[in-house]
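Course assignment 3, question 2. Fill in each field.
Student: A.L.
Task: Predict the tertiary structure for the chain below.
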Amino acid sequence: MGVSIWVRLKRDVAGVDPLDVDGKLLAKAINILDGVAPTLHVRPLKPDGAGGGTYPLPIRLGGILAALLILGFQADPASGASQAPMAEPVSFRNGNITLSGTLYRPDGPGRHPGVVAFHSANGGTRDFHAYRHLATALPAVGFAVLLFDRRGSGKSTGDFGTATFQDLAADGMAGITLLKSRPDIDPTRLGFWGISQGGWLGPLAATMSTDVAFVVSVSGPGVSPAAQMDYAAAHALRAADQGPAVVDRALRVRAVVNDYFRGRVTNRDAEQAIATIRSEPWFGQVFLPNSGSLPPNPKRTTWYVDMDYDPLQVLSRVRVPIAFFFAEADAWVPVEESITNIRRATGPHSALMIAQIPQTDHLMETGTPDAGGPTSAQYVTRLIEWLRQQVTG
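Answer field:
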């Protein structure tokens, strides 16, 4: 049996330079079906054909197709399977906000199911590393994927700093509206994928419209933003070898500051609390809103609006299939507490899936935690399996 793998390599994929491809280097990055020696066909990246060619891969197969999909590898065109995804620049509007993105879709006939991606708080542009697997793995199995620059980021207009969760969820719904308008997209099979903060937004957007058919939440906390940041601060301090007394002291200050944003204590009270720890070497690991610089009117901040957002109340209203992916240990999310809360909030949901993926971090990446390593092949496999089961049958 022979396998041909068709790929358009990019310089940022698996550390492979498209002008210097060799089988040994790729063998370190890829595992596929056992016993097959595949041939790699590299499509030319330049008009003169530079970077193109055919390369035998002297490797043994022993993994899963997902390992190929993460890297952007596609099936042989002769097999009739999907080819490299088509990338189309798009723009759409939510009120006076113009959102710029890229639609990745299978290069084949028919109306495809579609996924709109919600961002992590620190990944506002479509090219953020935690989204790359969506643009390669999902089109390869028949899904169109819309990645867009969050409002106020990249080529999108607006201001992220003043956007509430409702605003951001509405931006995602505008993406659903765009996909519904296209003849190559199936309007009955549209859903959201969201990671970290986006893991809150996907379920919220699903309660806003019956056009949403499914939701995937990756590292979406099952606690409020305020509780999530308390956990993150405590985790960071413990990781820095700070003892319980320091953790308790830091969390007490965070509580005062949060109460200032809630309108329960004065600016002076909050400033005095911050002053007691501002000179400590671990101050930066307390993650105070605005780094401890208090706004004169906290009610005009998005932290005031969103800090006590209740994801469980929202989840209790989600009526579509929903999947949650968590790391086994996460520096930013209280995983076990989140899973317990989610199960309680969703009740006997017939299409609920919760999976913990070993050896991954908050962004489902492997290697050194939070260092932008390769996306977990096991996670991608489980994601594709669930989407096929719930969306494409």
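Instructor remarks: The chain has three domains: 4-63, 86-224+309-392, 232-299. Residues 44 and 52 are 4 Å apart (CA to CA).
Grade: pending
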